[in-house]
Specification:
With 437 residues, the chain is of the alpha+beta class. Helix content is 25%, strand content 27%. It is built from ten helices and 20 strands. Strands 1, 2, 8, 9, 10, 13, 19 and 20 form an eight-stranded mixed beta sheet that branches. Strands 6-5-15-16-17-14-18 form a seven-stranded mixed beta sheet, with helices on one face. Helix 3 runs parallel beside helix 5 and helix 3 packs parallel to helix 9. The N terminus and C terminus are likely disordered.
């Protein structure tokens, strides 16, 4: 900014003509004429960009039976169930998982309460296999906060029931699922983002392409430029999570939201704390509403004591329809941590890490169609977060299992193949069977 001002002053010069020159400069700077602010290939076609004239743009293509975009709970559960079905039937299939994180679990925020049922459906002996389900919920608390006090709701009236559930570090659970998937023969490619949906000539989904690498900030190719890879599949599952960029394209392409209400969103901020042993209550799950939110702002919080060292996962969720334009969700969380009911858990502790993610909170009435020619959405891509329960992992895993079972039948009977791009799985009826509310 300082350089910009200095360079403009040198250009203007000095003297009695300064003001007229300044006026002309401002007029140019504030002109309504369109200005190019990016050289991304979606804004400037590489076919018309001279810098790309001599670059080889051919992509290597590989074929698999099922391609899965996203190595989270939904994508890995689908991959695992597909391979389990293949082993049971004595057949061979290729299942590929593409994950943008550097390793499986690296893009998953730690600290969650999950219903273990769907994981036990995948692996009935998951605990004996070493699944990181170490902390069963032993105390379930719900409170309404005022500025300096709190109203604790009797457990009988708590809207969600967590006994029988587990407090987990979700990144560890996802990493464990990834290990099980690889043992079953799933091909996992971490560090590669799916950047483009590929289509057959009839408009159905053919697969995806991974991102190009070696591109400079100005959009030009570097000497290290490498073209992404095409992955063609009989079926492509999109498990990108909330508001994935490929899922958004598919919503529009196939008009998947034509029969549902608009999706609503929230931002969830999570921190992982190491606290003194005397403050640690493994198995405690605390949820709060109220302060520091006003009555016009929808949101709430959670605090989970994890039995993995004296750790606490603290989180704060703010719906993105808040009316106050000056509201800052991160600062609201810092205010929440000063409340006497919360501060006593964190006093003397140290924050180890923090992160944030988007949440889809539209609920049942905002669920789009999830199956379309050549593909299906699972997990949080369509929005299977259960808001009243404040949980989504169990639905993500369950959706992956249902999609895998249905897809496998199509692969075995031959109705799903590289040429049958118009095949629609018809999963809508199955997904309605998920106990969502």
């Amino acid at each position: 900014q300082h350089y910009f001002i200095q360079s403009n002053l040198r250009m203007l010069g000095s003297g009695r003509n300064l003001l007229p020159r300044l006026g002309r400069l401002c007029k140019r700077r504030l002109s309504s004429a369109p200005r190019t602010i990016t050289t991304h290939y979606t804004m400037i076609d590489r076919a018309t960009d001279d810098r790309w004239a001599d670059v080889d743009m051919e992509r290597y293509a590989d074929e698999v039976d099922v391609a899965i975009v996203g190595g989270g709970p939904a994508g890995l559960s689908a991959a695992i169930r597909l391979m389990q079905n293949a082993q049971r039937e004595g057949t061979e299939i290729r299942v590929c998982v593409i994950e943008k994180g550097a390793e499986i679990g690296s893009h998953t925020l730690s600290g969650a309460v999950i219903e273990p049922g769907p994981i036990f459906d995948l692996f009935p002996d998951a605990l004996e296999m070493g699944a990181p389900l170490k902390t069963p919920v032993t105390q379930d608390q719900f409170a309404i906060l005022t500025k300096n006090s709190s109203i604790v709701i009797p457990e009988l009236l708590i809207p969600m029931k967590n006994h029988g559930n587990y407090i987990v570090r979700l990144g560890h659970v996802v990493k464990w699922l990834g290990e099980q998937a690889e043992e079953l023969g799933v091909e996992i490619y971490p560090g590669y983002a799916a950047s483009e949906v590929l289509f057959h000539e009839d408009g159905s989904v053919r697969g995806v392409a991974t991102n190009d690498v070696g591109i400079a900030k100005d959009g030009s190719p570097k000497d290290t430029f490498e073209r992404g890879m095409e992955i063609h599949a009989k079926l492509t599952m999109f498990a990108e999570g909330c508001h994935g960029h490929l899922s958004k394209q598919l919503f529009e392409t196939f008009d998947l939201r034509k029969s549902c209400q608009p999706m609503t969103y929230a931002i969830g901020i999570k921190e992982l704390w190491e606290i003194p042993e005397e403050n640690h209550s493994p198995g405690l799950a605390l949820h709060t509403v109220g302060w520091p939110m006003d009555r016009n702002t929808y949101g709430g919080s959670f605090l989970y004591h994890v039995d993995d060292g004296p750790l606490v996962a603290a989180g704060f969720v703010t719906a993105l329809d808040y009316q106050n334009p000056n509201l800052y969700p991160f600062k609201e969380m810092q205010r929440w941590k000063t409340h006497p009911m919360i501060a006593k858990h964190l006093d003397g502790g140290e924050r180890l890490m923090y992160g944030a993610r988007a949440l889809n909170e539209g609920g049942w009435q905002s669920l789009p169609e999830i199956a379309f020619p050549g593909g299906v959405m699972i997990g949080c891509s369509p929005g299977f977060l259960n808001v009243p329960k404040i949980k989504g992992t169990h639905n993500a895993v369950r959706s992956g299992i249902i999609a895998a079972d249905t897809a496998f039948d199509g692969i075995v009977d031959g109705s799903l193949n590289m040429e049958s791009g118009t095949k629609d799985l018809g999963l809508g009826t199955h997904y309605r069977s998920i106990r969502y509310l």
